[in-house]
Amino acid sequence: MESLYTMETLETLETFIEIGNSSPHIFKILHGLDGSKPKSTIPYLINSIVSRVNPSSIDQKDRSTLTANLSEVDLMKFLVEYLKSLENDAIGEIWNECIGFLREVQNSHTIYRHILPDVFRFVAVMANKVETVHFGEQRRVRRDLADLFLRLFNLSLSSRSIISSVVDTTSTSLSEKAAGSDPGFISTDSLTDKADDPSSSSGGPNLAFGKIVQESLAQALQDIIPSLRAILKDNDKVITALSSIVTTLISTAAKSKNFPSSFTPQLTSLLQAVVKVPQSQKAWKPTVGDLILDQRFLTMPVAQAESWKSLVSKWAQADKERLQDYIARLLTHGSNSNVLFGWTDQESTNRKRNVDRLSFIYLSGNSDGYLLNMRTVINKLEEIMVAEPAVKAEVYTCLRAIVLKLDPTHLSSIWTFVYIELEKTFNSILAIEDVSTIKEDHLRVLVSACKLLDTLLVLNLDDFKM
């Protein structure tokens, strides 16, 4: 095996990958074959990829014979995993080859688009290894990696790339096997099928392509976000990169007329990764706030809303000023002339949603209630109770959220309001002699009030006495 590997390294390596790619021992065997000298393996892996995407850029003698049933996607993924398997010190030996490959991808990015997600993962592994060795202390090393990454990053996030970034049909080596084994792989056949299907997208094939590329890119960006500081070594550049992600991917989905259905689970996970980056509020705070305060936000399914709780909590902690302003405007009237003669149905619906949103914000938080002035919140809820009885059920729900999430030490200012309103509600129902005349709205309020009382009794709070 060693003799064969020495004589026909590229073909042996490709066959070895094809046969043993799924084996957990493949890297140990490979390290044994190359004598733990990655400098004798990395160039062949890179040539194998380039031979399938841009063969004219390398000499004939260095090209693969393409006899192995492998796509460039398979090989790029293997290259990433192989790099992970190496000792950190080895990065210095193969640095020039790795940087040369990144330059090749940058110079011909249009035909490498479909493997850019894994190229980004490759860069992240390089950066994390360089971070731990003396070799990485050289300014030129850090600068070259950061510059190449930023160029590829900006190219991938350009609007044209997102819409038109599809597998180049001139690449003949993309196999259906690769498409079936990797959920992030963009298959030429699948894209062609979508293009031929008029029902695939109301916006035409380009929009369908863009959505596929967006999902693949979003997954890759989510994977590399924790490594951005290692790649860029500059906090301002990290914030700029995160802002680009939010502007290009997150805001695009948020502005869609189909929001919240346009906001896929993958985009939610990507946004969660962005929000976790320390000192990154500048990049995401305005956009996340706009999303949460969008009137359509509360129309999302329960499962989707559950995934947003951590985002809502982060936003509320980071943007208390905007949250307080939102609470202050819960009762603000619209400018329509109909308001002079009473609230319109739409305004009443909006008030209900606003109070429900406040409930969700509290349910998403922790026991300190974002350190908001509870007296101010209760005063606002009291105003709403008086001005719009139709929103009483939502106010009771909000009180239940507050009681469930906040530490009892923060609740002293709500009890008088709770006692008075519960008593009013129960007495108003008891005063009705003919129960058949009770309106549905009154029943909604009664049910919500009973749920609040039930919650208080179950919690058995010391300050709440019947």
UniProtKB/TrEMBL annotation:
<dbReference type="GO" id="GO:0005802">
    <property type="term" value="C:trans-Golgi network"/>
</dbReference>
<feature type="region of interest" description="Disordered">
    <location>
        <begin position="175"/>
        <end position="203"/>
    </location>
</feature>
<dbReference type="InterPro" id="IPR056457">
    <property type="entry name" value="DOP1_C"/>
</dbReference>
<dbReference type="GO" id="GO:0005768">
    <property type="term" value="C:endosome"/>
</dbReference>
<dbReference type="GO" id="GO:0006895">
    <property type="term" value="P:Golgi to endosome transport"/>
</dbReference>
<dbReference type="Pfam" id="PF24598">
    <property type="entry name" value="DOP1_C"/>
</dbReference>
<dbReference type="InterPro" id="IPR040314">
    <property type="entry name" value="DOP1"/>
</dbReference>
<protein>
    <recommendedName>
        <fullName>DOP1-like C-terminal domain-containing protein</fullName>
    </recommendedName>
</protein>
<feature type="domain" description="DOP1-like C-terminal">
    <location>
        <begin position="78"/>
        <end position="465"/>
    </location>
</feature>
<dbReference type="InterPro" id="IPR016024">
    <property type="entry name" value="ARM-type_fold"/>
</dbReference>
<dbReference type="GO" id="GO:0005829">
    <property type="term" value="C:cytosol"/>
</dbReference>
